[in-house]
Amino acid sequence: MAGAAFEEIWSRGWSCYLREEYAEAIACFREAIAIDPESHAAHYALASALSDDGEMEEAELEFRRTLALRDFSLAWAGLALLYLRAGRIELAEQTHLEAMRLRPDSRDRVEAYADYLWDVGREEESRAQSMRATQLYPDSRRDVQ
Fold it and tell me: Which CATH number among 1.10.3470, 3.30.1120, 1.10.8, 1.25.40 corresponds to the domain 89-145?
């Protein structure tokens, strides 16, 4: 991390985000990225705020920047959700499948795919993926890397 200034701006950004003050959150996360351009977490936060603010094209770029910096499960899930919201169902599925290809033993990635399958009406496949997820490190913490 880049120090106290980054942490203060980062915290302010998440506070704004949680209050659904997306413009303010976006400004904070952009400022955090200016301080630490290599922070995958700051790029992910910006992507999330942009997505929730309806800025889909820029959100997609930020999710991709996040993934270029680090193979981050939350960014894969966010990118797939962005595609799903945009009606790009096949691309959403491809995104989940690529994330699982990179880390096939990631419980979070399998659970995210199961959620996607449920959302698109493929309940039986969703149940099978959910069962698979419970067999992956059933006592472990969630995988957020």
Answer: 1.25.40
